[in-house]
Structures are given as C-alpha cells and as structure tokens.
Design a protein that fits this description.
Helix content of chain B: 40-55%
Protein name (chain B): Tripartite-type tricarboxylate transporter, receptor component TctC
Largest interface: A-B, 56 and 55 residues
Shape of chain B: globular
Keywords (chain B): Receptor, Signal
Structural class of chain A: mainly alpha
Strand content of chain A: under 5%
Helix content of chain A: over 70%
Largest sheet of chain A: 2 strands, antiparallel
InterPro entries (chain B): BUG, Bug_dom1
Distance between the termini of chain A: 63 Å
Signal peptide (chain B): 1-22
Shape of chain A: globular
Distance between the termini of chain B: 38 Å
CATH superfamily of the largest domain in chain B: Bordetella uptake gene, domain 1
Number of strands of chain A: 2
Order of helices and strands of chain B: HHEHEHEHEEHEHEHEHEEEHHEHHEHH
Family (chain B): Belongs to the UPF0065 (bug) family.
CATH architecture of the largest domain in chain B: 3-Layer(aba) Sandwich
Number of domains of chain B: 2
Largest sheet of chain B: 6 strands, mixed
Structural class of chain B: alpha/beta
Oligomer: heterodimer
CATH class of the largest domain in chain B: Alpha Beta
Chain lengths: 676, 358
C-alpha cells in the first residue's frame, strides 16, 4: 500500500527525532510545568501555553513541540487532583470525574481514586496515540462525513445523558437540564446578535457566562460550603483507607471499560467543533449502563472514575486530528498550539491540509510526544498521589479559606472582570440549592455546556437543510438522515430508555431525606419565575431573528411544562414524598454545627472586601480573620498560613503574568504590583 | 507623497533623531501589549510574532508580554484602552478589523475614539473568494452566470470582516445565503469541504495554507481576490495573487455592478478598514514624542531585518507593513468612512439580515 510505504518511514523518523536526550529533557520540563499549572482549578492549558509562547519564536521545532506537548498533555491528567480531592472540576474534561471521585475521597479512598484515574488516563492517552498512528493518514474522509446534522446528533446524545443523571425524580432532572440550557443562552446570540436576558447597560452578561465559573459555582462552592459547615476533614474520620496500588488494580479489573471509553474519547475528539465537554459525560453514561450493580454510582463507584478519565485523555489525541489535518483547533489550548507552531524554527511548519504531505514525521512526533508526555505525567502524578491524598485528612476549616481564594482567582481569570467573582457567587447559590433539594447538578451542567452547540448546530443544520429541500426533497432527506445520523439516533433513544430505567438507583447527591413542603415549593417557584422571565424575554426578540429566539422558546417551554407538572405533584403529594428531598431536613447538612448563611457570609465577605480594597489586601484580611475567628488558630499559625497563601497567589500570578481583581482603592490610588 | 516614501522618510527622521532616543531606555522594564481578543485568535498570533522582535529592537531590550483582554467583540478592551493615559511608555495596544468595524458602524458598545490613539505600526492582508466546482464552472470573469444560483456561505456574522465578502457578492447580484454562528474562517472552509457551504473566502494566509490545496485538487475554483490598494488609493490586483482578477475587475465585467457610486464607495471603505490596514498597534493618548519615535524606530528596525520577509510570510505576506507616518495614514483610512457609505451599509445590514445598530 502506498499509504504505508510513506507512513512507516515517517514513523521511524519521528522516533529518531523524539529519542534524543535534549528532546526528552524538554518534554519532562513541559510536563512538570503543566503539572504545576494543572493542579490549580480553572487555569488549565491555555494559561500555561501562553506562558510558553514568548520562547517559541525561532526555537528548534522538535524542542518547542516537546515543551508545549509536555504541558498540554498533563493538564487533563493533573486536573484530576482537584476533582477528586476537593470536588472541584479542574477543567471541563473532568467534570464527570467529580461525581464518583469526590465521594471516594470522602470515604478516605482518595489515593485509590487518584491512581485509578491516572492509570485510566495514561491508558486512554496511549490508546489515543496508537489509534491515531494508524488512523491519521486515512482520517480526512471520516472527519468530513461529520456535517452539521451529525454534530447536532452527537450533542443530543450528550444531552441524553441527562436521563441517566436525572436522579430519582426524572422531571426534576429534566427541569435542571432545561434551566442549565437557558442559562447557557444568556448573552448575545451567535446567529443574529440578539440579546437574551442581558443588556448593553450591563455589558458583563452580553458575553454569556463562562464554563469555568458555572463549573466551579455548581460543584465547588456547594461542596466547600457544606464541608465547612460540618467542620471536619474531607475523608471521614480523617483516615486514609485504600492506597494507590488498589487503584491500579481497580483499573486492571476494569480494563475493557477503559478500552471502550478511550475509543469513545478518540472518536468524539476527532470531530471538530464539539470539544471536550461532551466526552466525559458520554463515557460516564456508558460506564453506568455497562455496570451490573448501579447502586454505588454517585456514592463512590470506581468505574465512574475510570470511564471519564480514560476518555478525557484519549480525546486530546483525537483532538489533534482536526487540529493537524484541517488547521482547525478543537479547543482553546489547541488554538494557541497552532499559533505557536507557526513561530517555531523558520516558520515553515504550517498546520493544515499540507501537514500530512509535507511534515508526516513531525505529525507522528506530535502524536508520540503526546503519548510519552502522558507516561511521564502519570508516573509523576501516581508518585505524589499518596502524599497529596493526605490533604483530605486535614481539618477542612484550614483548607476552605485557600479554596475560596483559589476559586475566586480562577473565576477572575476567565474574564478579568470583578463581575466574574459575583457570577461565581450567584451560580454558587444556585448550586447550593440544587444540591439541597436534590435537583441533579450534573444535569444542569450538561444542559449549560451543550446549550450553545445544540442551538448553533440546529440553527445551521436547519438553514442548510431547507436549502437542500428547495433543491429537491430527496437531497434534503439524504442530508438530514445520513447513516451516521440514524445510528446516533438509535443510540440516543436506547440510552434515554435505559437511562430513565436506571436513573432511580443513581443518587448523585446520596440518599437525600425528604422534609416539609414549603422550602422545596419556594425553590420551584423561584426557578419557574426565572424560566418565565427568560421566555418573555426571548419572545420579545423580533421574528426576523427567529434563529435567536427559537431555541430559548422551545427549551423554556419544555422546562416550564416540567416545572408545572412538578408543582401539581408537589401540591398533591403528601409530605415526606421523595419529591420533597431536602438536605436541611436531616443528614449531614442538617446536623452541621454551622449554618448555611453564616458560612456563605465568609465568602461574601471576601468578595465585598475585594470590591473595596482589591484582591490581595482583601485576601490578607480574610485569611487572618478567618483563621483566627473561625478556625481559632493561634497567631503564629495564622500568620504563617496567611503568608503562605499570599505567596502562592503572587508566585502563581507573577509567573503566569496575571492580574488580581482591583477594587475601589486601586482606582483611587496607584499601588505597586501585586496590590494594584 | 506615497505611503512608501512617507514611511521611508519617517524612518529617516527617526534615525536622525537618534540622540533623543538615548533618553528612552526600557532596561529591566516589561512592556505590556494588550490584545482585546482571546489567546486563540489571529490577533494573538500577530502580537506573539512581533513581541520578541520588538523586544530585541527597543532600547534596553525590555520583555514584551502579550496580555489578553477579550470581551464584547473586542470593544471591551478598546474601551479600556481609551481610559489609559501615557505613564512610562510600557503599554501598547493592538486593534483589528473587528475593532474598527463597530467603530465605523456606531455600535452602541463603542466608547473609544481612534483619533485619540497614536498608531505606530500597521499590517494588512488580502482575501480570496472561491466556489465549488459545479458553480465555479459558471464563472467566466464576470458573475453574470452566477446571478440565478443560490449559494450558501458559512459566516462569522454580518457585522465583522465577513461584511466585505457579503457586500461584494451582493453588488455582483449574487444570491448568497449566510449561515451565521461559525467560529473562525477555518470552520467556514471545513463547511465548504463538507459540501454544506458552496461559496467561501479566506484571508490570504488562510487561502495559501488551506484553500489552495482544494483548488489544486479540483474541489474548489478560485473566483476573485478583494484586490489591494496601490499607492494612489486605487484597487488593483493583489500582488500575492497576480493571476486572479480583483473584485473591481469582476464587478466591472458583471451586469448591474458599478465601480463607482455610493454602494461601491461603501464597499471600498469597509474593505480598506478590514484588509489593507487590518491590524494596528497603538500607544495610548498623551505619549510624548520621544517614546513614539522609539517605538517607530524599533518597528522600523524589525521591518529592516534581512530575514523579515521570510519569517513574516505567515503574518504579513506580500503586504506592506506600515510604520510611523505610514501607520498613521493607514489608520486614518481604516477609520474614516463617508456618512453616505455608512448609511448605505447600515441600511443594507438591516434590510438583509435584520441587524439593527443603535
């Protein structure tokens, strides 16, 4: 075969390029830097890569590639730390990992969960590399076979995972997903530029809410607040159970799940325009559907960690296909990667259609550098996981102020507006109540993440389909119902049917007890008021901008219908029914020594102080007062911890060349960095 | 005086004022180059290319870092820059066509004024439109054969750089239906490759790196380039694509398309704003002359590098890089449009796409 006649020598050339001490050294350097950036939630590969960019100009291509790939490759691996240990989704790729990883940490099995996740991650990365080596030379027609209807169907398949994660009351899951989608439509519409639930008088919302903020708000804020109220360590009884070898064994016992999820990851990653946010949910859904005893999901099922982690790293490999073959970035970090490649050497490596023809050896180097970086990164991560897992045995009151610090900083980095932190707080409130009343938070997040793709692809596919139908009916039908669409449709229907049947046993929030009627009904009414407002707002968009109003109207209508049925059910059913689930009625939250509002006030205090004196000064005051008053720490400990926190922030922001949120004080007086 | 001689004399002036330059020294300082887009866009690539070169040429070799301030289609960053005053010459701002168009169209979000800013460097690009083979066969140097064909185009939005091709096709009497909401021209090309879009365009570098391969493989037929500006401000063939007719030639050959009058002038004004002077580097208002001269001299030195043509082929290509006076003239052209032309475009956007700017 002609293809292999050129591919094999190129593969050999690639290995010759990679296997040089200097190249491997740069790779390890990149990996270490990537780990340092990746363990902080919300920063991820984009921040790290922009840090490297100034050095790329004129650099020897293979060295620059080693450095950059080392950094990109470990971010989806290292962000697992915060997902598992703190319940904070480190990036969009590890949202599903939180669902079972964090409960495992709370059982004292953090090391086991981490090493299982890392092993799965490593394996996914290697499967991705092998698959790509064979596949990349023939990938072009397959990528081109995925048109808009196919991409729409994949997004809908991702959305159908809501069925699995809907919780005990399916309608609540549906409404949560609908609310997530509606919140995802906030801002200027892509198609016609209409404003939805936003105004130019308050410009912040016109760009919509960032995924980082919604992810942190929905998962991190409620968990931090809840743990802080209970005033104990993350791991119950502050003891570490299973060790890292158990995690590796867990992975081995589930290797076939890992293989399947890796393949899901590569295939979805190959399709440009979808990005990583769907992959982990599809993999999680698959893990649930293929597990016989589903009762442990959401409470610490190791398969719920292995599935998404296998897929999210394999996706990175898959994402290289559109990046290298078409010059179309699959993610933000890939976009920077493309830009950086043009700076390397004499600038003659041009990512795009000519890449395979002119630079097949470089292409293979990239694929295998990615695999190697995965191996190095995983070994490092597993090596430190036992030690880092000890964090879960620390009294949480000592961790919480630093977590508030990190998530506020991460939120601010997403748009560099003070409003970013306010939005984090507001979404955090929604998250707290969704959690309290057992409305599926994963369903909300899936809705939010997929809101934009579903809207975009359905509008565009509709436009092109009507164009085809004008040509001929047959042409239109061929376009909409391609074999891929039909296959995806069948998978979606099957997964919804199976998912609904299983959803009742999967309790992402644990077994929430039911309480009185009043609080759940009030929360329902509040959601309903927002949905109504969004509906009225969307309806006010003029009809010639139908593309901007149709999706909010349809989604809002369905959500409203679900809410109305729920309202009727709530009125009819007796107190104590599962529909009235309320964490404040009994259980950990109800028994917590501290109240919700008092605890939340600490975070609000940090935000308010930032508004006046800027982040660093506010943080210094916050840490001292929190540690003295809430944690009752002695002065020396308080001062040392505060200094450590401030130093960490300054070093990180300084190294990444980031600013801190300024306050009114900074507007009035010119202060030196980091105070300005 | 032509742009070239202007630029050359500016450079000579800058060199003559050498002694004055010695006063500006950036040793140990960090220059922040603020880009009102995300890390992933074309402007990021542009600034990242120039940053290390600029660092080598500025006195004292300061570190030049690129900072990103995305939001509201770049108007957020531009509004922020409007508030900045000169401090110590360590701030630079980069705007692009996407910052210029809202300014020209009186977008309500715009609170910035180009007249306040001090341009030091500008670069441009060109663009090429191409068709699928089936419809491309009907193109014979005029668009007469294409006027009764329905075409689909993947577009990033009618008020951005896509305004120029959409208006060009409209002037040719073509019926092009834009599918809005794609991100980046690469996505547009992919839509074309999948056969979903039937007409597309790329900026020059995008055409050479992606679409030219399609043309070579016979899956795309080039239609025209937008053209380039000659020294007298006329639209001529794009020097990067000398074998391709410019839009002006195609328009002249097509029934019903006029190369003069309000519609033509409107197209030309937005073309100039979006392409020949697409990306401009500014110093904040109030910058003293010695700082301006220092930057102009540094960019001049970058342009004079013997390897500049080679290393900049992806960034600048065959298009002139304007420095100093040349950049000021380019900025003037990129940000001025007659009231008639503006009114024409605003009406057209409203009638065709329901876009209202108020």
């Amino acid at each position: 075969m002609d293809l292999f006649a050129t591919a094999l020598p190129a593969l050999a050339d690639a290995w010759a390029l990679i296997l040089q001490p200097l190249v491997l050294g740069y790779l390890v350097l990149g990996v270490v830097m990537g780990l340092a950036v990746g363990v902080f939630p919300g920063l991820g590969g984009i921040a790290g890569l922009s840090l490297l960019l100034p050095f790329m100009f004129g650099m020897e291509p293979v060295l620059g590639l080693a450095l950059m790939i080392g950094m990109v490759a470990v971010v989806p691996t290292s962000d697992t730390f915060s997902s598992v240990l703190m319940g904070i989704p480190g990036s969009s790729a590890s949202q599903a990992t939180v669902l079972d990883g964090f409960p495992l940490a709370r059982k004292g099995q953090a090391a086991r969960a981490l090493s299982a996740a890392f092993t799965a991650s490593l394996f996914g990365g290697l499967v991705g590399a092998v698959f790509l080596t064979l596949f990349i030379v023939v990938a072009r027609p397959l990528v081109l076979a995925f048109g808009l209807p196919e991409m729409l169907m994949i997004s809908i398949l991702g959305l159908s995972m809501v069925a699995v994660l809907a919780g005990r009351v399916a309608l609540k899951g549906l409404a949560a997903a609908g609310l997530g989608m509606l919140i995802g439509t906030i801002g200027v519409a892509d198609a016609g530029g209409s404003l939805r639930m936003a105004s130019y008088d308050f410009p912040y919302l016109t760009d919509g809410l960032q995924l980082v903020i919604v992810g942190l708000g929905i998962f991190a804020v409620p968990e931090i607040v809840s743990l802080l109220r209970q005033d104990r360590s993350i791991a119950k009884d502050a003891a570490l159970g299973a060790g890292w070898m158990d995690g590796v064994r867990d992975w081995f016992a589930n290797k076939w799940l890992s293989v399947r999820c890796s393949l899901i990851g590569v295939v979805v990653g190959v399709i440009p325009g979808l990005g990583g946010s769907v992959v982990d949910w599809i993999a999680y859904g698959h893990a649930v559907q293929t597990t016989k005893d589903k009762s442990q999901f959401g409470k610490g099922e190791i398969r719920g960690v292995i599935g998404p982690e296998s897929s999210n790293n394999a996706k990175e490999g898959g994402g290289l296909v559109p990046t290298l073959l078409f010059g179309i970035p699959g993610s933000g970090s890939m976009a920077i990667f493309i830009g950086a490649i043009a700076l390397l050497g004499s600038g003659d490596i041009e990512v795009g259609p000519a890449m395979l023809r002119d630079n097949l050896d470089i292409t293979y180097s990239i694929v295998w550098l990615l695999a190697l970086a995965n191996v190095v990164g995983t070994l490092l991560c597993i090596g430190v996981s036992g030690g880092i897992a000890k964090l879960t045995t620390i009294r949480f009151t000592y961790l919480a102020p630093f977590l508030f610090m990190l998530i506020a900083f991460a939120a601010f980095q997403s748009g560099q507006n003070f409003e970013d932190i306010l939005a984090l707080f507001a979404i955090g409130l929604i998250g707290i109540f969704l959690r309290r009343f057992d409305w599926s938070r994963p369903a909300f997040l899936i809705g939010f993440v997929l809101s934009n793709p579903v809207e975009k692809f359905s509008n565009q596919a509709f436009q092109i389909a009507s164009f085809r139908f004008r040509k001929s009916f047959e042409d239109g039908m061929d376009y909409i119902f391609s074999p891929i669409v039909i296959a995806l449709l069948i998978i979606t229907v099957v997964s919804v049917v199976l998912g609904l049947r299983q959803a009742k046993t999967i309790m992402a929030e644990g077994d929430v007890q039911s309480g009185s009627k009043r609080a759940p009904i009030v929360f329902l009414m509040v959601i309903m008021a927002y949905v109504l407002a969004a509906l009225i707002n969307a309806n006010a968009i003029p009809d010639y901008n139908m593309t901007d109003k149709i999706v909010p109207l349809v989604i809002g209508g369905i959500t409203l219908a679900a809410l109305l049925i729920l309202l009727v059910q709530m009125i009819l059913r007796p107190e104590g029914d599962t529909i009235f689930a309320d964490k404040e009625s009994s259980g950990e939250d109800a028994d917590a020594p501290y109240g919700l509002w008092g605890t939340l006030a600490w975070f609000a205090g940090l935000i308010a102080a930032t508004y006046f004196v800027g982040f660093i000064l506010a943080l210094a005051g916050f840490l001292v007062i929190f540690l003295r008053v809430r944690a009752q720490a002695p002065w020396p400990k308080t001062l040392i911890l505060t200094a450590c926190g401030l130093a960490l922030m300054c070093v990180m922001a300084g190294a990444l060349n980031r600013d801190f949120p300024p306050g009114l004080l900074q507007h009035a007086v010119d202060l030196p960095w980091p105070l300005h | 005086m032509t742009i070239k001689t202007l630029a050359a004399s500016a450079a000579a002036l800058a060199l003559l004022s050498g002694p004055a330059l010695a006063e500006v020294d950036f040793s140990g300082k960090t220059i922040e180059w603020v880009i009102p887009f995300s890390e992933t866009g074309g402007s990021a690539k542009w600034a990242n290319f120039f940053a290390p070169l600029l660092s080598q040429e500025l006195p004292g070799n300061p570190t030049v870092v690129v900072k990103f301030m995305p939001g509201a289609g770049s108007t957020k960053g531009a509004n922020w820059f409007q508030e900045q005053e000169h401090k110590d010459g360590t701030m630079l701002f980069g705007s692009s066509g996407s910052t210029q168009f809202p300014y020209l169209l009186d977008d309500p979000r715009v609170r910035y004024d180009y007249n306040d800013w001090i341009p030091v460097m500008a670069t441009g690009t060109g663009g090429v439109a191409y068709l699928n083979p089936e419809d491309g066969a009907k193109f014979d140097g005029s668009a007469n054969g294409l006027q009764d064909v329905d075409l689909i185009f993947g577009s990033q939005g009618a008020t951005g750089l896509d305004l120029v091709p959409l208006l060009a096709w409209k002037l040719l009497g073509m019926n092009v239906e834009p599918v809005f909401g794609i991100k980046g021209r690469g996505d547009g090309r992919l839509m074309f490759e999948r056969g979903e879009a039937t007409i597309d365009y790329q900026t020059s570098s995008g055409y050479l790196s992606g679409a030219a391969d399609l043309v070579a493989a016979g899956t795309a037929v080039p239609m025209m380039s937008w053209g380039a500006l000659d020294e007298d401000g006329n639209i001529v063939r794009d020097p990067t694509f000398p074998d391709m007719p410019s839009f002006k030639e195609v328009c002249a050959a097509t029934d019903g398309c006029e190369t003069e009058g309000v519609a033509w002038e409107a197209w030309k004004a937005f073309f100039i704003s979006g392409y020949p002077s697409q990306k401009i580097a500014f110093l904040p208002k109030g910058s003293p002359q010695d700082v301006i001269d220092t930057y102009v001299a540094a960019f001049e030195a970058v342009r004079a590098r013997p390897d500049f043509a080679e290393i900049s082929s992806n960034e600048v290509g065959e298009y002139p890089m304007f420095v100093g006076e040349g950049a000021a003239k380019a900025t003037k052209e990129a940000t001025t449009v007659t009231p008639e032309a503006k009114a024409y475009v605003i009406d057209w956007l409203k009638d065709s796409y329901g876009v209202t700017i108020k």
